[in-house]
Amino acid sequence: MTIKYSLKRIILPAIVALAMLSNAQAAEALKMELQANKITKTADGKVSYIAASNAQKGETVQYRATYTNTIDTPISDVSVTLPIPANMVFTGEAKPNSAQATIDGKNYADMPLMRKVDGKLVKIPLSEYKALRWNIKWLPASKSADVSLNTTVN
Hints:
Number of helices: 2
Largest sheet: 5 strands, antiparallel
Strand content: over 45%
Oligomer: single chain
Strand order of the largest sheet: 2-1-3-11-5
Order of helices and strands: HHEEEEEEEEEEE
Radius of gyration: 16 Å
Helix content: 10-25%
Protein backbone atom coordinates (compact mmCIF):
# COMPACT_ATOMS: atom_id res chain seq x y z
CA MET A 1 0.00 0.00 0.00
CA THR A 2 1.41 3.38 -0.90
CA ILE A 3 1.21 6.67 0.89
CA LYS A 4 -0.17 8.27 -2.28
CA TYR A 5 -3.39 6.37 -1.56
CA SER A 6 -3.29 7.55 2.03
CA LEU A 7 -2.68 11.15 1.04
CA LYS A 8 -5.86 11.10 -1.03
CA ARG A 9 -7.69 9.95 2.07
CA ILE A 10 -6.19 12.70 4.26
CA ILE A 11 -6.12 15.72 1.94
CA LEU A 12 -9.87 15.90 1.37
CA PRO A 13 -10.75 15.53 5.08
CA ALA A 14 -8.07 18.08 5.96
CA ILE A 15 -9.50 20.57 3.49
CA VAL A 16 -12.98 19.92 4.87
CA ALA A 17 -11.63 20.49 8.39
CA LEU A 18 -10.07 23.76 7.26
CA ALA A 19 -13.45 24.83 5.91
CA MET A 20 -15.03 24.19 9.33
CA LEU A 21 -12.75 26.55 11.24
CA SER A 22 -14.39 28.12 14.25
CA ASN A 23 -13.72 31.66 13.02
CA ALA A 24 -15.26 32.47 9.62
CA GLN A 25 -12.67 35.18 8.94
CA ALA A 26 -9.88 32.73 9.71
CA ALA A 27 -11.21 30.31 7.09
CA GLU A 28 -10.64 32.94 4.44
CA ALA A 29 -7.33 34.04 5.96
CA LEU A 30 -5.58 30.68 6.29
CA LYS A 31 -3.69 28.83 3.61
CA MET A 32 -2.90 25.20 4.47
CA GLU A 33 -0.04 23.13 3.07
CA LEU A 34 0.10 19.43 3.91
CA GLN A 35 3.24 17.28 3.75
CA ALA A 36 3.75 13.58 4.37
CA ASN A 37 7.31 12.56 5.22
CA LYS A 38 8.78 9.21 6.07
CA ILE A 39 10.87 9.42 9.25
CA THR A 40 14.16 7.55 9.10
CA LYS A 41 17.28 7.43 11.23
CA THR A 42 20.70 7.84 9.70
CA ALA A 43 23.67 5.63 10.59
CA ASP A 44 24.80 8.17 13.21
CA GLY A 45 21.35 8.18 14.86
CA LYS A 46 20.07 11.48 13.48
CA VAL A 47 16.47 11.72 12.34
CA SER A 48 15.77 12.62 8.72
CA TYR A 49 12.57 13.29 6.86
CA ILE A 50 12.06 12.26 3.23
CA ALA A 51 8.98 12.74 1.07
CA ALA A 52 6.72 9.75 1.50
CA SER A 53 5.91 8.56 -1.98
CA ASN A 54 5.42 5.08 -0.58
CA ALA A 55 5.86 3.47 2.80
CA GLN A 56 5.84 -0.11 3.95
CA LYS A 57 4.14 -1.72 6.91
CA GLY A 58 5.74 -0.61 10.18
CA GLU A 59 7.39 2.52 8.77
CA THR A 60 6.74 5.89 10.41
CA VAL A 61 5.15 8.74 8.48
CA GLN A 62 4.74 12.28 9.76
CA TYR A 63 1.82 14.38 8.52
CA ARG A 64 2.63 18.06 8.89
CA ALA A 65 0.26 20.92 8.10
CA THR A 66 1.47 24.48 7.83
CA TYR A 67 -1.21 27.13 8.28
CA THR A 68 -0.27 30.60 6.98
CA ASN A 69 -2.17 33.78 7.81
CA THR A 70 -2.64 35.46 4.41
CA ILE A 71 -4.24 38.70 5.61
CA ASP A 72 -2.80 41.88 7.10
CA THR A 73 -4.27 41.39 10.57
CA PRO A 74 -3.69 38.72 13.20
CA ILE A 75 -6.22 35.97 13.74
CA SER A 76 -6.95 34.16 16.98
CA ASP A 77 -8.59 31.07 18.44
CA VAL A 78 -8.67 28.94 15.30
CA SER A 79 -9.23 25.18 15.57
CA VAL A 80 -7.45 23.04 12.98
CA THR A 81 -7.84 19.29 12.55
CA LEU A 82 -5.72 16.55 10.98
CA PRO A 83 -7.41 13.20 10.39
CA ILE A 84 -5.43 9.97 10.82
CA PRO A 85 -5.63 7.91 7.61
CA ALA A 86 -7.49 4.61 7.90
CA ASN A 87 -4.41 2.50 7.13
CA MET A 88 -2.25 4.31 9.71
CA VAL A 89 -1.95 4.15 13.50
CA PHE A 90 -1.16 7.24 15.54
CA THR A 91 2.12 6.81 17.46
CA GLY A 92 1.21 9.18 20.29
CA GLU A 93 3.60 11.88 19.07
CA ALA A 94 2.09 15.21 18.05
CA LYS A 95 3.42 18.75 17.86
CA PRO A 96 2.53 20.95 19.53
CA ASN A 97 1.71 18.56 22.33
CA SER A 98 -1.43 20.55 23.18
CA ALA A 99 -3.40 18.49 20.61
CA GLN A 100 -6.69 16.93 21.54
CA ALA A 101 -7.81 13.61 20.05
CA THR A 102 -11.05 11.93 19.01
CA ILE A 103 -12.17 8.37 18.41
CA ASP A 104 -15.50 9.34 16.83
CA GLY A 105 -14.68 12.51 14.87
CA LYS A 106 -17.01 14.60 17.05
CA ASN A 107 -15.87 14.60 20.68
CA TYR A 108 -12.32 15.78 21.38
CA ALA A 109 -10.42 15.55 24.67
CA ASP A 110 -6.89 15.91 26.01
CA MET A 111 -4.61 12.94 25.49
CA PRO A 112 -4.36 10.25 26.53
CA LEU A 113 -7.99 9.45 25.86
CA MET A 114 -9.63 7.39 28.60
CA ARG A 115 -12.74 5.24 28.98
CA LYS A 116 -14.33 3.17 31.70
CA VAL A 117 -13.93 -0.60 31.53
CA ASP A 118 -15.41 -2.62 34.38
CA GLY A 119 -15.71 0.55 36.43
CA LYS A 120 -12.03 1.53 35.95
CA LEU A 121 -10.55 4.25 33.76
CA VAL A 122 -8.20 2.82 31.13
CA LYS A 123 -6.32 4.39 28.23
CA ILE A 124 -7.93 4.04 24.84
CA PRO A 125 -5.52 2.35 22.40
CA LEU A 126 -3.83 4.76 19.97
CA SER A 127 -5.08 2.56 17.14
CA GLU A 128 -8.61 3.89 17.83
CA TYR A 129 -7.66 7.57 17.45
CA LYS A 130 -9.29 9.06 14.33
CA ALA A 131 -8.08 12.69 14.29
CA LEU A 132 -6.21 15.34 16.25
CA ARG A 133 -7.24 18.95 16.79
CA TRP A 134 -5.21 21.99 17.84
CA ASN A 135 -6.27 25.49 18.81
CA ILE A 136 -4.07 28.20 17.33
CA LYS A 137 -4.41 30.94 19.95
CA TRP A 138 -2.72 33.74 17.98
CA LEU A 139 -1.36 33.93 14.44
CA PRO A 140 0.12 37.28 13.41
CA ALA A 141 -0.28 38.64 9.90
CA SER A 142 1.81 36.83 7.27
CA LYS A 143 3.08 34.26 9.82
CA SER A 144 2.71 30.49 9.88
CA ALA A 145 1.95 27.80 12.45
CA ASP A 146 2.83 24.11 12.08
CA VAL A 147 1.03 21.11 13.51
CA SER A 148 2.06 17.51 13.01
CA LEU A 149 1.30 13.97 13.99
CA ASN A 150 3.28 10.77 13.54
CA THR A 151 1.76 7.52 12.34
CA THR A 152 2.93 4.04 11.44
CA VAL A 153 1.74 2.11 8.42
CA ASN A 154 -0.61 -0.61 9.59
